[in-house]
Structures are given as structure tokens and as C-alpha cells.
Amino acid sequence: MCKIKDRKENVILELRDVTYTYEGERLPVWKSLSCAFYEGKIHAISGPSGCGKSSVLNLIDGLIPHMYEGELRGEVLLRGENITDMLPRYRCEKIGFVMQNPESQFCTFTVEEELAFGMENLGISPEEMGDRIREALRFVGMEGFEERDLNNLSGGQKQKVAIASVLVTEPEILLLDEPTANLDPGSRKQIFDLIVRIAREQKITIIIVEHNINEIIEEVDRVLVLDRDGKLTLDCDRGTPEERAWRKRNTRNIPASYGKDSVSGEKVVEIKGLSFAYPLPGKKKEKGQPVISGLDLDISRQDFLAIVGENGVGKTTLMKLIFKICQPDAGTVRVLGKDLKGWRTKELYRQMGLVFQNPESQFITNTVMDEMMFSLKRVRIPVEEKEARVEDMLKRFHLEEEKEKSPFTLSQGQKRRLSVASMLLTDQQILFLDEPTYGQDFENRQELMKDMQRLVENGITIVMITHDLSLVRQYATRVVELEAGAVKKDMTTEEYFS
Amino acid sequence: MFTYIETDSVLHRRNPMIKLAVIAVMTILVCLSYFPVFPVVTFLMSFFTIWLAGNIPLANLMRRLLIFLVISFFFMLSMLILRGLNDEAGIVLHLGILRWTQRDLVHAITLGFRILALVTMSMGFVLTTRPRDLVLSLILQCRVSVVHGYAAMATYRFLPELQQQVDAVHLAQEIRGIPWNKGILSRFTSPFRVALPLFCVAARRGERIACAMESRGLGRENERTFYKRVKVDRGDWIFFFSALIIYVLTAIILFKLDLFGFSFASIQ
Fold first, then answer.
1. Is the model's pTM score more than 0.80?
2. A11-251 has which CATH code?
């Protein structure tokens, strides 16, 4: 591990012996954590679920302990000055924070207003604000977007605006919490390029928590890795033997085609010439631009299929059509050999399950046990058998300890597992996952995907709609890329990434 | 339905507080009138002002008002049916078992158009007022604290997302086999089923936005500047006084013509 003392002259920020325990928690997030961040460098923080990566950013920004209450010991030093007691609102001149989901940090309605918000709070003159807004938008490649409504921007553009809105306050340190989560591959590359330019051209110190670390690792100057207990296990420059060894351990390969031996080739979903357009607002009979246009797709039993594509290409609409939520304008969909029109929705949903982006949307009861039992409400089997089936499923998804808890009080990972478990109780043969990585940290994602792998091995077909290409590369066996409502590419994962 | 429409017009350029003041005066006067002529005139004046001075396309405005026209019509109809069951003297109209006095008819039509007039004015305000201008006006003209002003704006930002969340819950529960708004029982229980997931989303969202605002310096004890200010200019005062003069004159003329009453007592 590199010694902090050796490079003391370049240190811009230092955490010294920091221990923090969230209110209501017994164990601290990290115990006696000490590390330093260097001026103008890009620092990447990595580590497993719950190790406190995002909490480090919250601590540096001051949200810990001033917004997220708890017990804090130790010191945060900015250029040698102790800022531990300083409120976040007084740190923002020096430290800018870009949160994971730009939507959750927008305070206004238009691009210009959003960029001005932070500067207004700092008391900058309107003339200077105008200059800085133009300069920041030019820097992020969004000139002329001043008057645009934030709601009408793409995911990548929103993230650029979020970054620009912090850049205009000219911070010395920029904190980024998984800035590319929920972005499509094209936007992700643009954001990574932007981050590198910020560090190299504007000499701003970057501290980034990022799960797609392999995509940016070549540009990172320092890597910090926390273990499960929040202990710093690696803190060194990129390219050192320790870092190379860590990277090697964490590089994952394209999946072996598990379950493929038993693939029967039986088609579980057959889509031919599917077309669909949403009605124009306020005009039920008039249709707008087609979202799905002449789409052909076959899904075979035990496929672990990933449907990818830019925002708005029709991924979610396709799923709505398969689930009979929308009616196609043309084409046919056959599920398990039977035309979709011939399926009663109740019967169809017993064959196909859908796990939502936000698992809370599907919870309706007060306990985990009731939530599971609800899925079997209309199944005509004895209560004892239902209970046995639920117990078995809870065990399978490591939720047996939580069965009396409210689904809404579970952790994000547990909520996701519960939503999957409740969808599989009636022996569904096909499971759709809509952005399974949404709101999930790295370890929860891995755990969930391993569960999905096991399901495929047991004969279930998994279809996941995602932007997370690292997840696709790691787990899917087949990739379908959509473009303008039709299939652009349909190939094995190996071919897709080669 | 109640969303701002971006365009340039006389109403769009007016200060939000001035528009609110005009609406407040009109609301008080229209609520004092117990004859239908004044609410009808108020509705028509508001409608034409929004259409012409607000530069809102007629079809768009009509579409937005349609639901309220229907509600007002049904309100009037139900009032007429209930009042038609009485057995008072001075019946001027009857239909089967329903009998109405002049007072019944005046009462129903007045209240129906009063609702319509109030909704039209409110809609006109929302359609022609940028949310940011409203917040700035509250902060700069009404001296509301910056923190409270921006908290209101954050809440307003969340409203369209709320509908998306409701749709997501709807879809999720339908796939779990719970019919949505099908049958009387489902219609009754669906708001309860959606409440908890929505509450969770709103609480989490509130916490995040509070953190985001704090970390971007909201609430600092220094002189806050404004990139764009909302002022009350000469055009606002001209609009305010001309609107009031026209409206009060209309009320006086109707009063002189015995078409503006302060109570139903004068109606036989």
C-alpha cells in the first residue's frame, strides 16, 4: 500500500481515523478509516455491497453527519483545514457532488435554471452566471440547451446537466456516485470521457464510486478498495503490482453457456411482424410515431436473453405488448405455442412473471409472508402446501429471517429478491426483469444474477431489459439489440462483445 | 391538464402575484353573486382572456376544460333533481314528479357556473405561469423564505412523476393478478393499495432532494443572487387596474339591471 506521508505535499483532502455509525445501527460503516486524495487526480473507490463506498462521498460532502444522522469520530481535512463540522451548504464552493440519479438532484425545471441554482446560492452576479452557464454547457457539449425542459432530456443529457450544474460553481473536488448507472452504453462512454476531461483540462480532483470500473480504469490515477467491513484493503496508484493483482481478480469473463446443454430449442415466445404506436395525447384514435415497427423475435426455453438498446427504442413497450398491457397494431405474439389473443391474462401471468425496476411498486401486503401468500391466492391447493411452498421459496432467496417484516422496510437487495421470489411461486416458465440493476449495488446485482443463472439451469427462461452491458457480458447467453423498434442485432453474448 | 404551456403572451408576461390578486378579487365577487348571469359572464370573460390574451390554442383550452364542463353539468343536474323533489309554492317548471321554483333553477345554474368560472381562472393561471416565476415571485414579492420557495418548487417538479409512479404500481399489481379499477370493490380499494408504495417513493425522493439542495448551498447565510428576477412592472399594474375596472364595472351594471343579487332571499 502506498504511504500517504510520502506524497503529503499533493494531498487536497484527507480522512483521518474516521469511524461512523448510522443512527439506529449497531456496527459502524467504517472503523478508523484513513486515506488521502491527491490534487488533480482521478480516484476510484470500489468494494462490495455495504462497505460504505457511497458513504465516503456523503462524508466528504458533509451529508454525513449533517443530513444522515449518526455518530461520527475522526476528522475530514480539506487542504489541512478541519471541515468535519462544516455544513454541506458551506462546502459546496470547494466540493461538488453529482448523485447517482440526476433526477433526484434537480431542483428546477430548465437547464439554465438548474445551472444557475448553485451559483445563486453562492451569491454570484447574474452577468458572471450567464458566462459560466454558457462555458459549462459548451464544455459538456450541450450548447444551445439553456431553455430546454429537464424532463425532455435523455438520460445521458440529464447526467451532463447534473455535472455541469456542479462545474459552474468551480469546485476543487468533484464527487461522483455511480454517474453512469441507468445509462445506455453510448451515454456512458460520453460521461466517462467528460469526467476524464474535467480532471485533465480543468485540474479538478475527481473521486468516483463506479461499478462499471473496468470501463474507466485505464484513466484512473488511484484506486481505493474497501472490504466488506469498511476496511481499506487497497490504496495505491493504478498500474502498481497490487492494483494489477486486484484488477485481475476482479475481471470477469464472458459467461460459459450454462444450461445450454439442456436447451431444447423449444420456442417459448414467437414474435412476428409486431408493430405498435401509442395514441396521440388526447386523441385515442390517432396514433403517433411507431415505437415498435415490424419486430421479429423468437425466445427459446432456457435462454438468458438480454434486450439492450438506447433509451426510447421500444424495450419497455415490447414487454408491455408481450404482457397484453398494450394491444399490437399489427403482427402476432405467441407464448408457449399459443397466440396471445387466446390467453386469458390471469393464465398468462401464471406462465410469465415480471420483476420491476422499482420492486416496491408490486408490494401490497404488510408482511413478507403475506406478500408471498398473496401470489398463491388464486391457486387451488391446500393452505399447508401453499405455506410449505412459500417457506421453501423464502429459504431459496435468503428471506426466511425477514418473513414477519414489512416488505417496505427491507433493504434494496432484499426487496428485489422478494419481488423475484413472489413472481416465481406459481411456477412461471418465463421471467422478465426490467432494469434489474436499478437501485442495486454491485453485490446485490451479482447475487440476484446468480439466482437467475440457477433458474435458467432449472429450465426457466430469463429475459432482462437493461443498459448495464457489464451485466450482460457477465451473465446473458444471448443479446438482442433494438433500434427504432426493430431487432438490429441478435447474437450470442460472445459474438456481441467480440 | 394543469401544466404550464410555454409560449409568449400578455398573460405569460404578467407577474404571478398580480395575476393571483386579480383572481382573488374575481373569486370574491363571483362568490357574492347569487344570480347566474355574473358567474356566466365571469366564465366567458376568463375563457376569452385565456384564449386570446394567453395565446392558448382554442382546441387545447377546450380539451382541458371539457372534463370540468361535464362535472359542472352533472353538478347542476344533480342539484336540479334533488331540489325538484320539494313541494314548495311558486312552481315555474315541472317534469314528471320533479317540480322547480325559480329559486331552484337560479341556485343550480349559479353554483354550476361558479364552479366553472373558478376552475377556468385557476387553469388560466397555471397554463400561463412558469413555476419558477411563481417561486421567484413568492420569494421576491411576498418575502417567502428561499428554502420554503424552492421546497415548493421541488414538490411541483415531483407531481408529473407521481402519475408515472401510479402507472408503474398499476402495471405491477395487474401482473400480480389484481385487477385495477375493475369492479366496484377494486375501484374502492385501489387508492389504498397505491398509497403505501407511493408514500415510500415520495419520502425517499424528498430526502434525496433535500440533500441535493443542501449540498448545492441552499440556505447559506449570505446574500443570495438571482439569475433572473421577477419584477412588478408598469404593464402589470395596467393589467391589474384595467382588469379590476372592467370586472367591477360589469358587476355594477348587472347590479343596476337587477342581475346581481347578494342572496337568494330576493328570488321568489
1. no
2. 3.40.50.300
